[in-house]
Amino acid sequence: MGTLTSAMFRPALIALPLLVALPAAAPPAPVDGIVTLAPDAEARWIAFDLTPGNQIRFELELDGRPLSAVLDTGGSYSLLSRRAAATDPARVTSGGRATAIGGALALDWMPTASIAFGGLSREGGRIAVADLPASATGGVRGVDMLVGRDLIAGQALDIDYANHRFRLIPSGRLPFTGAVAPLSVSPQRLVYESAIAIGGQRIAPVIVDTGDGSSITLADAAWNVAGLTRAVPTTTTVGYGLAGETVNTLAIAPAVSIGALTARNVELKVEPSGGFSQTVGVSGRIGSGFLQHYRVLLDPGAGRMVLQPAATADQPPLRSTSGLLTGVLPGRLRVLHVMRGSPAEAGGWQKGDEICAVDGAGIGTGYVGSAASRWSVGAPGRVVALTVCGGGVKPLRLASFY
């Protein structure tokens, strides 16, 4: 569908989670294979870039084939795209369904000979196979695979967001210092889990999910426990998971504690009743949109997560002043969501509307990430002239609304 954006650089406003958990039917054994870590694993950093949806994207090899992958600690099992070159339909067997963000997901399984990245390798085992749409990464370029708990949980995961690299090291190592929080792999859900506190209220368990590009997500019941319903203004946002689109409440929490760390002005997404978190029995998720402001050590074997603040840790999150969340298509923007209580809602904008120019400038190939794309988080009071494709010019006055 094109690149997802809120008309600005790398938005946190549109959440792009990849999490898939809880296979509805038990996977065929054996699944995990034999995982080993090279003696020099600590020196084998793996370079990554962030997808437009804030997920960690890197390269690995599966059965000797190079593939693109996303690091997904919220995934119970690693997952291969049905469209990946390494997928052999003749070896794929039916495996039932899994729970994913947006709904249920058809799931199959395929045996593998080897998987390797950095200092980690796995011999044998099986991998889940499912549809993996490009839209779930926020762009036209999808990935071939998600790397989940089954491959990495026996090691410590050191993510150096500032330098766009990560590595797998032996559990128990402590390569840097920072605030410590509890971390475990849930025996029920088989994903990384921790706890947070908001307003003195403990909220647990929460999934630690590097495959979710949003900051912190709460189930509706956890939001009520946090006591922020009347304390902070709210709006709405849209997210795209493996199983489809979700619309959620969006707010900024004054403070969130994770173990010994207290973070200020944290963006919160709140799922409606019956959302993914409630379905799988958790209170929410900590996503890459939050974690990317820290150097992160995830070591469930040692029972800890370590967070070392980066220079961006105390910066307030960007807030839309337009209320238009858009996707970028050739030569135009398509409105994906109109945020509740926003200037765009007051101006009558609708999902599906298309914009062909902003302040007279067309939507060119270099639009995403450019200064011109940041108009929707511009200064309150500024009037932006938006040219509706085939429908004239509509002025939009920017304002603070949440």
UniProtKB/TrEMBL annotation:
Secretion signal span: 1-26
Pfam family, one: Asp_protease_2
Record keywords: Signal
Keyword Signal in annotation: yes
Lineage of the organism: Bacteria, Pseudomonadati, Pseudomonadota, Alphaproteobacteria, Sphingomonadales
The keyword Signal is annotated on this UniProt entry: yes
Name the record gives this protein: PDZ domain-containing protein
Protein species of origin: Sphingomonas jinjuensis
InterPro entries in the cross-refs: PDZ_sf, Peptidase_aspartic_dom_sf
